[in-house]
Every structure is written in structure tokens, then in C-alpha cells.
Amino acid sequence: MCISRKIMITGFVILLFQNFTLQLSFAYAHDYARTFNLVTPDSVKYELSVTVPSSLYDHYRNKPHTVHFAYDWVKFVTPYALKPIALKLRTVCTSDESFTNAVLSIVHQLRYENRSSSYPVETLVDGWGDCDCFSFVAASILMAGGVDVILLH
Q: Which terminal residue of the chain has fewer beta carbons within 10 Å of its beta carbon, N or C?
């Protein structure tokens, strides 16, 4: 039996819905929304809806993106920005393994295309990136969810 549930992250207010849908509206200039489909090891299907306020997206777009030294890569890992996603995933993924699989499932739903390094919020909103960008998204959510992460270059 497959149960369907919706996980919504709207304006970083997180709600879990089962068998009904509720839409919340916030007065942002622009909200960027993206939906991810997840399946837990016990075959429960979830829909994770993430809405990012334009102010958060603009904040990261205006940050420096240059990399001069190897240690500059660490600035792209931003667990605090993706903490709401990690917290919601932790409610349905009880083990580190299922949590990690859910994070990787999110990353695999993004389109691969070469680009210069971007912050995880930018990658999620844009819906595309390359290996570096995907690594930053995964590392950020994993760290926010309490999983130790090491990035190797």
C-alpha cells in the first residue's frame, strides 16, 4: 500500500499534510516554488514543496561567487539557509540513511547543466546546476539535519 502525503515549506513555515491540501499566501514580492517527489523505504510517497522568498534568493545572488583558493568552496555550504528542509525531512526519515537518501533524491531531481558555483538557495530556485552546485545543496541539507559532511575537491 502506498500512502501519499504532502510536505510544504512555504516562506519557511513548514507544514505536513496528509489527504488534504491547504495553501498559504505570504506578501512577498516574488516567491520561488519548487516541488520534489520523495519515496521513503516503506514506500510512502511524499511531495515536498519548497517556497523561497525573493529576498533570500536575492541575498545569495548578491554574495560573492568567486573562488580563489580551495578553502573558498566552504562558503557555498549554507546549512542554516536549508534548515527548514532538513527539519521536515527528519520528520519522515528517522535514520541517517533514509535522510541521506531523501536528500540525494532531491538533488537528483535538479537538471544538470554546467554553471559557475552557486549557493544552494540559488540552485534550488533555478532548478539546475552542476556537480559542485549539487554537492553544496546536499552538504547543506545534510549538515542542517545533523549528518557530518566532508567535501573533497
A: N
